């Protein structure tokens, strides 16, 4: 009987945490720049189009949930040591987060710029569908222009992701100070 009660308590905790996580992500939407799928990161400092933070944990996604159109320009300045969690050179990409994203990898709910830059670099990208790819790196906007157009009409937020050889959004670690300028 004790094991049955313990099993029920564990199942309840798992269901509660799964629902809480979704609510926590949704409740962060109104707060502008907010870390998602990242760990041990302090809230970034924002001044106009400049976002800065100390890379003390693992940085993965940094969307601006107040932004309803994509960013097309990015400048990155880093001081300190930046590592990609998955190895290789650290990269940063612009990305679009669409309404209805549940972070389970659904195609057409997240789009990344094909072009990326390193910890000290910049990029400028157009809104041409050929310059963007969806969750699956093989799915590009020019192959699915209707899906990309729908994404642009249903933006939940826009921002940057940090990755490397293992993919976009897989994470950076420091220690470093990172300054992003977006437009």
Quick rundown:
With 183 residues, the protein is α+β, with helices and mostly antiparallel strands.
The backbone outline, from C-alpha atoms, is: globular
Please count the helical segments: 2
Structural class: alpha+beta
Helix content: 10-25%
Q: Could you describe the largest sheet, including whether it forms a barrel?
A: 5 strands, antiparallel
Q: Would you kindly provide a written description of the structure presented here, covering whatever features stand out?
A:
The relative contact order is 0.24. The protein has 2 domains: 1-31; 32-182. Residues 6-30 have low confidence and may be disordered. The chain has 2 helices and 13 strands; from the N terminus they run αββββββββββαβββ. The protein has a 5-stranded antiparallel β-sheet, with no helix packed on it. It is globular, with a radius of gyration of 18 Å. With 183 residues, the chain is α+β, with helices and mostly antiparallel strands. Strand 1 and strand 2 (50-55) form a beta hairpin. The protein has helices at residues 2-27, 145-153; strands spanning 45-47, 50-55, 58-59, 61-64, 73-80, 83-84, 91-98, 110-113, 121-124, 132-133, 155-163, 172-173, 176-182.
